[in-house]
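Tutorial handout. Part one gives the primary structure; part two gives the three-dimensional structure as tokens.
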Amino acid sequence: MIGFGAVTGLVSSALSSMFAAKEGKSDVASNNSDFLKTFEQQTQQKTSDLIKTLDKNGDSVLSADEIGLSQKEFASIDTNADSKLDANELNAAYIKKEITTATQDLIKTYDINGDGKLTETEMNISPEAFSAIDTAAKGAVGIQELMAAHPMNSLMAKFSSTANSLTSAANNVQSLDLTA
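Part two.
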């Protein structure tokens, strides 16, 4: 039986190869780590630039008014529900958007029968990698399963967990009685 780490590597490599082939790049799968580092740096720079541009009151976070989103859009990004978007929340939202767009494009490119799902044959990946993605074991994977297996999810999780950890730490500090 193949180990979880090996399957994760197979899935990441297979999907990276598919995304790279769609973009006309052949070296992304072999340089996946470098690609993720570069993407992370670019995302952080875009987020920093966005905050600098839109942050009217200089608090290094964005309110709904500052960013100009609907309440529903704002709430979907404000994962800690503090009515402010920090860099980590914005980074995670940007990465999620990129994952969604790339996955939709992948399906459009490789979905031969037009059913909105990809089979092992359409994906042209190993049975082990396909089985790891096909969590419902239906022989075809839809957008949710593909998004869940996307190699950039590790970055999104990194930013999401950092935002949640910072909120938890802030809440713990606020609850301390510092008057004693």
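Part three, for discussion. The chain has nine helices and no strands. Residues 87-110 form the longest helix (24 residues).
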